[in-house]
Task: inverse folding
């Protein structure tokens, strides 16, 4: 296939922007992460791997990393399971209804995370809607603890990141022509086979993109975990923020950030490998 | 055992809001027959086919395949095959897997799948391409994969919705002949949707001419072309010179049609007409001839003036103004005697060559 060649001029602004605001800060962060730090003297340029050593040996940071990975994974799966049927249903809508559904799905993005987390505080608290309902129906006799734990963080993050999953899924689901599903169905495939052999593999790129997006944003979230865990759970990004803003230990914070980046890149590679393998099985 | 038609539509109706897309149509398609649904855009062909396939639920009426009502069966339980205008191949599967799909769904043994797929690919002359990705195929090859995919599990009926309209003109014609041959060999009953009258004439055992959700006429290609039963059918299939008039005299076999300005034409007819009936007279351009004064007069003859002439290669199209209206003549190149615009000519046609239609 012939590729249309873009004039090079068009790519310059993006290149310049990425260079100035992504590559340069990234290199700077890498450099800082090797610096020395002491509470009295602050940062001192150096080249030592002490921060990385601490990160990899201290059980506290292992815990933070595992918590982060577990929470992010559960959030990713939850938003996939909730988002897929929703996105599939949205592709069936037409005209105004589609626009309305789209607005409802994406509206959460227009509200700040802080406000949404505060909303969950109200809903999940001991006197919140859910507990009132459980108490009133007699399912429980004393309020269930829904807040300030991992559950609350997962609920809050899933709600916050669901739109990203839905957008990714919609893009790939909408690209599947109806006639392909009809062709499968006439050929004798029931709903389950159409889903497993046609819909799922054809929407796999959307699943992969959405999952990676949600996972990456989840691992780097810090407002929602802080508010909904009441400070009990520290995710990786909380450690970064604390080091940069509270203890002013920039080198250590930078090292944590780089570690997080490496983890996300590894997950990306894993995801890519998995997608290719799954698609290969259909050929 | 009584034999049932392969496809039976009875009072089939589909509405979309206020639009009656398909209006109580009835049709029987015999086993092994190739029947075309032909009609202008929006007349309900696709809607009818989609109801037979099971993608749409009829609002009224019944669909029977081999005598069994399938109206409340989902598409995957109707054992039909379908070929789409857009090919609708599974993009993530190879040619082999595309064709194998219907067999895998039916859980046939591996060896049998392998054999059937290769047979089907050979039938559509694509043997050797089974490893290809469908993206690496030309439009004609894709449509043949799609045909193989629909036929490989020996469906009771084959449904085709304008399968060739995305192909270029030459290939489209070549594919017609190929489809007929494959359909004969597979001995499958086929329902073919098209808005191309030449395509329908070329391939069909019978043609169902549709208009605005209704069936106008069902008949063999010769029937619907030579003996249309309505002005719509006469006009939709090929070219037609149409003249409005009334019956001036009628016997069992002949009718004399008189136009508003007093001209009389004689026609042969099988329908009983009464004097004064409003009617249309239809004569095909290829049945009009330019006659020399010495010719034994055809039953209907007029003098007129040549208005224009165009040469199309195999035929000449001549417009003649006579009796206050334009007549279109299609004259074959081998019988061509040159005329030029402005020439005075006599034109005429024989009584059996024209058709009297209900107004
Ligand atoms: N999903 C739908 N919703 C509303 N109206 C529809 C729908 N599908 C078809 N129609 C209407 O029903 C009528 C018949 O449509 P159909 O697609 O069967 O026509 P067709 O004969 O296949 O035409 P074409 O040659 O253009 O494909 C049209 O008036 C069309 O606008
Ligand atoms: Mg159509």
Result:
């Amino acid at each position: 296939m012939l590729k249309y060649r873009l004039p090079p001029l068009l790519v310059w602004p993006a290149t310049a922007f990425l260079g100035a605001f992504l590559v340069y800060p990234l290199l700077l962060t890498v450099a800082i992460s090797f610096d020395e730090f002491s509470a009295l003297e602050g940062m001192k340029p150096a080249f030592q791997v002490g921060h990385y050593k601490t990160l990899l040996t201290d059980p506290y940071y292992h815990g933070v990393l595992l918590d982060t990975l577990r929470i992010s994974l559960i959030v990713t799966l939850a938003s996939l399971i909730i988002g897929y049927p929703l996105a599939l249903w949205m592709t069936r809508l037409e005209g105004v209804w589609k626009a309305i559904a789209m607005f409802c799905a994406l509206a959460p993005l227009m509200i700040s995370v802080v406000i949404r987390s505060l909303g969950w505080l109200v809903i999940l608290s001991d006197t919140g809607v859910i507990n009132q309902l459980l108490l009133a129906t007699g399912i429980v006799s004393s309020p269930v603890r829904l807040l300030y734990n991992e559950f609350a963080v997962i609920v809050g993050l899933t709600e916050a990141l669901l739109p990203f999953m839905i957008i990714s899924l919609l893009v790939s689901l909408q690209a599947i022509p109806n006639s392909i599903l009809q062709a499968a169905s006439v050929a004798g495939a029931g709903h389950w086979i159409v889903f497993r052999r046609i819909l799922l593999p054809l929407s796999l790129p959307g699943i992969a993109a959405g999952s990676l997006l949600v996972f990456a944003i989840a691992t780097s979230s810090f407002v929602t975990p802080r508010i909904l865990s009441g400070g009990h759970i520290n995710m990786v990004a909380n450690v970064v923020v604390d080091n940069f803003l509270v203890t002013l230990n920039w080198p250590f914070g930078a090292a944590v950030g780089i570690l997080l980046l490496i983890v996300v890149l590894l997950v990306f590679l894993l995801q890519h490998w998995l997608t290719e393998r799954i698609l290969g099985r259909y050929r | 055992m009584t034999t049932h038609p392969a496809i039976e539509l009875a009072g089939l109706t589909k509405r979309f809001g206020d639009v009656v897309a398909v209006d109580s149509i009835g049709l029987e398609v015999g086993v092994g027959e190739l029947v075309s649904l032909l009609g202008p855009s929006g007349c309900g062909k696709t809607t009818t086919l989609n109801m037979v396939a099971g993608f749409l639920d009829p609002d009224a009426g019944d669909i029977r395949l081999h005598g069994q009502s399938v109206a409340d069966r989902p598409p995957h339980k109707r054992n039909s095959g379908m070929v789409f205008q857009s090919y609708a191949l599974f993009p993530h599967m190879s040619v082999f897997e595309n064709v194998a799909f219907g067999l895998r769904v039916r859980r046939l043994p591996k060896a049998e799948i392998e054999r059937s797929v290769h047979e089907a690919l050979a039938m559509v002359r694509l043997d050797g391409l089974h490893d290809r990705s469908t993206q690496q195929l030309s439009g004609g090859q894709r449509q043949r994969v799609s045909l193989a995919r629909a036929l490989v599990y020996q469906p009771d009926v084959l449904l085709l919705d304008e399968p060739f309209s995305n192909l270029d003109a030459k290939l489209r014609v070549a594919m017609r002949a190929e489809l007929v041959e494959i359909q004969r060999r597979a001995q499958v009953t086929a329902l073919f949707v098209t808005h191309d009258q030449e395509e329908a004439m070329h391939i069909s055992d019978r043609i169902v001419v549709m208009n605005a959700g209704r069936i106008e006429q069902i008949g063999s290609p010769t029937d619907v072309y030579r003996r249309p039963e309505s002005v719509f059918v006469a006009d939709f299939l090929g070219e037609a010179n149409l003249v409005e008039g009334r019956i001036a005299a009628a016997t069992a076999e002949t009718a004399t049609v008189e136009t508003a300005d007093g001209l009389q034409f004689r026609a042969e007819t099988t329908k009983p007409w009464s004097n004064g009936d409003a009617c249309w007279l239809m004569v095909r351009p290829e049945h009009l001839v330019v006659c020399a004064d010495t010719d034994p007069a055809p039953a209907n003859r007029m003098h007129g003036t040549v208005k224009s002439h165009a040469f199309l290669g195999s035929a000449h199209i001549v417009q003649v103004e006579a009796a206050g209206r334009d007549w279109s003549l299609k004259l074959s190149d081998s019988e061509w005697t040159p005329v030029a615009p402005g020439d005075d000519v006599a034109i005429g046609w024989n009584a059996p060559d024209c058709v009297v239609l209900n107004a």
In short: The pocket of magnesium ion (ligand 2) is lined by residues B 45-46 (CB under 6 Å). The longest helix of chain B spans residues 169-186. The interface with chain A takes residues 53-55, 74-76, 78-82, 84, 86, 88-94, 97, 101-102, 105-106, 133, 146, 149-150, 153, 159 of chain B (CB under 8 Å). The helical segments of chain B are 45-53, 95-105, 110-123, 139-151, 169-186, 197-203, 221-226, 231-236.
